[in-house]
Design a protein that fits this description.
Rossmann fold, alpha/beta, six-stranded parallel beta sheet
């Protein structure tokens, strides 16, 4: 059965993405698995999200397009290196599964989830936000166009209404 992660994978293929960087994340797991199975995409598991920013710069310098997959709780790890996207003027695309959002159960997730849009905007990153599966393909496509044709740093925030509310234990 197809879902919104399959739509993202199709957009990555349409935009000739050759490298995908990620840390383990349940929200991106189906997309990561699809990328790992692809013969056209190289995936690289990171020890921390910030490693993805200079890797994206290197991919671009080497003539390839890339994307960084992460969760909102990892955005704080990338902020210092986000300045590279403006200083070195390379396109950057990241897809962020949001926590600390709609129906969150884990209070630890709220500070970075609420801060993610603000800190990315402060670093000059364009934001696109998605709440429903029907918006995913067009939004990720628009973000990839802004990044790779417009030379921008762009983040797509995949909101909790889209990825689903996580629950652990009894309700």
């Amino acid at each position: 059965m197809s879902d919104w992660r399959d739509d993202i994978f199709a957009v990555l293929q349409d935009h000739d993405i050759k490298q995908v960087y990620h840390v383990p994340d349940a929200g991106h797991s189906r997309l990561i698995e699809a990328c790992q199975k692809s013969n056209a995409i190289r995936t690289l598991a990171l020890t921390t999200e910030e490693e993805g920013v200079p890797l994206a710069a290197g991919a671009w310098l080497g003539g390839q397009r890339s994307v960084l997959l992460m969760q909102s709780s990892g955005v704080g790890n990338t902020i210092n290196l986000m300045g590279l996207t403006k200083t070195l003027r390379f396109p950057f695309l990241t897809l962020i599964t949001m926590r600390g959002d709609y129906g969150e159960f884990n209070s630890w997730q709220y500070p970075m989830g609420q801060g993610t849009p603000k800190v990315l905007e402060a670093m000059g990153v364009l934001l696109y936000s998605v709440d429903s599966a029907a918006e995913v393909k067009a939004t990720v496509d628009a973000a990839a166009r802004s990044a790779f044709h417009g030379g921008q740093a762009v983040a797509v925030l995949l909101r909790q209404k889209l990825i689903g509310i996580k629950t652990f234990g009894k309700k």
